[in-house]
Amino acid sequence: MSAVTKADETGEEYENSGLVIGPDGLARPPWAAVDPLLQQYYDTEWGMPVRDERGMFERLTLECFQSGLSWATILRKREAFRAAFHHFDPEAVAAYGPADVDRLLADSGIVRNRAKILATIGNAAATLKLRAEGGLAEFVWSFQPAATPAPRTLAEIPTTSEASIALSKALRARGFAFVGPTTMHALMEATGIIDTHLVGSHRRGSSGVWPKG
Fold first, then answer.
1. Which positions are annotated as binding Zn(2+) (predicted)?
2. Looking at residues 145-172, what average pLDDT do you find?
3. What percentage of the chain carries pLDDT values higher than 70?
């Protein structure tokens, strides 16, 4: 029986998998089942392929700022982040100086963390250098593993992998900061490089990169 089969209409199988059935009849993980903003993000964006430089730089930056915080906090501040960081144009961010750091530290719309702000500026410069190797997006995608996890329960969802450890090491060697293995695993999940949607979620396999099973 599938992990999301409604055995005897009790919903027991959904409970065991960790999936939540919404009013629309669709199965989602708990983090995407209640908050409308998180649900929209899950339903339309999370896990979909990102293959352009600016898009990947934005996702990498947001994942860096999320470290130690909830994703909901970052998502609610996303538009403020975009405005503060020139819509994540790496060339513009790489040129930031002390006045820009002061501006960002005074911006209540974003997460005001000096170390992460400085890391983002450094990461923008490192992104420009990566163009010589095909660009940030292509570089990150080069660490796509041969297989993706197929978690059937929340407990089976990994938080790191050999691929995320390797990506973290490679980015650090090229001057990136705040790119630890857990953060890079989250980036790979968010950008479709791996699919950690629970088997039975209505979004499993939606990226077109990996099959549903």
1. 197
2. 96
3. 92
Distance (Å, rounded) from C-alpha 32 to C-alpha 24? 13
Report the candidate in 45, 47, 50, 55 with the shortest Cα–Cα distance to residue 127: 55
The three-state secondary structure class of 33 is coil
Instruction: Scan for tokens 């390797």, then name that residue.
Output: 166
| Mean pLDDT computed over 129-153 | 97
- Answer yes or no: is pLDDT of 109 > 50: yes
Cβ contacts of 108 within 8 Å, gap of 6 or more: none
Binding residues for Zn(2+): 197
Backbone angles phi, psi at 192, to 5 degrees: 85, 5
Positions marked catalytic: 41, 63, 71
Q: What is the mean pLDDT of the chain?
A: 92
pLDDT tens for each residue of 45-88: 999 999 999 999 999 999 999 988 999 999 999 999 999 999 99
What span, in angstroms and rounded, lies between the C-alpha atoms of 145 and 143?
6
Cα(94)–Cα(81) distance, integer angstroms: 15
Q: What CATH topology corresponds to 57-191?
A: Endonuclease III; domain 1 (1.10.340)
Let me know if 15 is exposed, middle or buried by CB neighbors in 10 A (0-12, 13-18, 19+): exposed
Q: Which residues are annotated as a binding site?
A: 197
Please report, for the chain, the start and end positions of each structural domain, with discontinuous segments joined by +.
Answer: 8-44, 57-191
Q: Are 88 and 52 in contact (CB under 8 A)?
A: no
**pLDDT at position 15, please?**
53
